[in-house]
Amino acid sequence: MSIKFSEIPDTPELFRDYIENFDKVKEFYFSNFRDENHLIKNIENFNKSLEHREKLVTILNRQNLNGQTSEKTNTNINLLLSENTFAIVTGQQLGILTGPLYTIYKIITAIKLSNQLNDKYPELKFVPIFWLEGDDHDFAEVNWIKILDNENSLTKIIYDDGLDIETNRGPMGNYQFDLMIDNFIEKISSSLRETEFKSDILTLIKKHYYAGATFKSAFVGLVREFFDKYGLIILDPQDIEIKKWLKDIFIKDIESYRFISEELILRSAKLEERYHAQVKIKPINLFYVEDGGRYLIEPSGNDFRLKGKRKKFTIDQLIAEIDSNSEKFSPNVILRPVCQDFILPTAYYVAGPSEICYHAQIYPYYGIHNLTPPILYPRASATIIESKVQNVLNKYSLKLIDFFTDLEKLATNVTDKNSEVVVNDLITSTINELEKPFENLKNNLVKIDSTLEDVVTNSKNKTFQILEIVKEKALNAQKKKNEITFRQIYKTSNILYPDENLQEREINFVYFANKYSLNFIKYIFEKLDINLYEHQIIEIG
User: Where are the beta strands (DSSP E) in 27-118?
Assistant: First the structure.
C-alpha cells in the first residue's frame, strides 16, 4: 500500500514532478534516475584516478579502523581501490539518536540500492557511503527527538545545555555532551512505556551518549550498531586530510565568488519561473571557525568578513589561511555536494525531497569544477502503522490520507458518520407521535367524565417531561461516546501525522524499538521498498 507524493500536503512541486513527471523538470537535472542507461553512459565520468582512490582508501581505513568495523565494511573500503567501484552516497546532519526516521530510511535506501546494482552489473562494484555532515552548526535542528509517551501524547525531548538556543556552538560534529545528557536520557526513560525491550534500548543509548562524547562519535556509534554489518562506510569530512584535499575548491570559491554566485543566481531565477527555489544563494559558500563558533564568510568591499563578527581578511590573507589552516573552513549546503563528489566516485546520491530540489539550483557548480553530477535517487519514504492503530482506522473506515486535513473537522465527520442515533430528532419524533394518542384518549374519556381531561393532560405532560430527561441523559451519553472517538482520532494522528507532518520527519526510532525490540531496524530494512517511488505504508505488530 502506498500514497503518491502528489497526494501529500506541502510536498514541493519540483520534487513531485521529478518523481512523477520528469519531462517537466529535465532541463534542471543532469539525469533521470529511472533511465537505466544513464549509469553506463556516464560511468567513466564518475570515476577517479588510481592515485585519488589510494588517497581516499588510506583516509577511510584510518577512520574505520579494524576492530571497529565489520569485515564487510573493510572489504567495501578496499574495493574503492578498483576503478570499477563506485559509491552510492547519502548523508545527513548528526541528529541526536539519529534524529527522525528518514535518516534511517536514507541509509537503508543507499545500502539496498548498492546491493541491487551489484546484482545487476556484476562487472562493477557499488558500495554504500554515509557522508557525516558534522560541520553543520545548527544546534536546534539536532538536539531533539519526538516520541509518543505513556499516554500516546506526542512528546519532544530536548538535550538542553543551558545556553541560549541562538548561541553559535560551532560545528556539531565536535560538540561534546555535558552531564545534561543524563537528564536527556532520563526524560526518554520516563516518557517511554514499560516494555520488555526498554532496558536494552536505554543500555544502547547510554553506550554511545554520555558526557564527553560528541554528536559525531555518538551518531557514528549508533549507526554502526545497525548498519555496519551491511558494509556501510562512514566518511568524516571534518578530517584534516579531507579539508587539505578540498583546498583548491575552497580557494576557487573565494577567487571566483562573483562569477559563481552570478551563475547560481541565474540558474535559480530560471527555476523560479516555474518552481520555488529551495535555498537562497549566498555570495560565498564557505564557513570559517573562529572562537569556537562557525561563521559565514561574506564579501565586504574588496575584502571579506565573518558574518556576525568583526574579523576581516584581504583576499590574500583568506587564501593564505585556507592554504595553512584548511580545517577551519567548511562548505555550506550548496557547496557540500560538490566537495562530496570531488572526494568520492559517486554514481548515485540518495536524496530527500529538499535535497532533490536544491540540486536543481547547483548544477552550474559542478561544471565550474569540472565534475559530473551524480544521479539523484529519491530515498524511500514510509509511514509505519501499528496493528492497534490499524484497528482504529478500520473501526472508522479511515486511511492515512484522511489525516492530511483539519483534525477537528476529521473527528467531527467521523462522529457524525458513526452516530447510530440522532437524539434530538428521535425524541422530537416520539413526542409528535404521542400527541395523537393522548389527544384521542382525552377526546373519548371526556364523554365519560369531563374532569378526566385534566388527568389525561397531566399524564401527557409528565410523559413528555420524562422524555426530556431521557433526552438529556442520551445527549450526555452520546457526548461521552464522541469524546472517546475524538480522543482516538487525535491520538492516532499523533503517530500517523504528528504535528501535521509525515511521521518520518518527526518520530525517532526509539519509540518503535521500545515496543518491538531493536530488531525493528532489521524489520524496516526488509520491508522498505526502494523502488516504489511513492510514500509506502508499512504495517507492524
Answer: 85-93
Alpha helices for 335-385 (secondary structure H): 336-343, 353-368
Q: List, in sequence order, the alpha helices (H) in 246-344.
A: 247-255, 257-271, 315-324, 336-343
Give Cα separations from 491 to 116, 151, 407, 465, 494 (angstroms).
38, 9, 11, 39, 5
Contact 374, 346 (CB under 8 A): yes
> Could you give the 3-state DSSP secondary structure of residue 450?
coil
Stretch (H or E) spanning 205:
helix 198-208
pLDDT value of residue 439:
76
List all residues 6 or more positions away from 534 whose beta carbon is below 8 Å from its beta carbon.
2, 3, 4, 5, 381
- Provide DSSP, 99-140: -BTHHHHHHHHHHHHHHHHHHH-TTSEEEEEEEEETT---HH
Q: Could you tell me the three cell numbers for 348?
A: 548515485
Cα 445–chain centre separation: 78
What are the start-end ranges of the H helices in 372-518?
A: 387-395, 407-418, 423-445, 452-496, 509-516
Distance separating alpha carbons of residues 231 and 127, to the nearest angstrom: 8
Q: Which residues of 180-210 are buried (b: 16+ CB within 10 A; e: fewer)?
A: ebeebbebbeebbeeeebbeebbebbeebbe
Burial classification of residue 518, based on how many CB atoms lie within 10 Å of its CB (0-12 exposed, 13-18 middle, 19 or more buried):
middle
Residues composing the chain:
541
What pTM was computed for the model? Answer: 0.89
427, 445 contact by CB (below 8 A): no
Residue 156, helix vs strand vs coil = strand
Tens of pLDDT along 88-105? 999 999 999 999 999 999
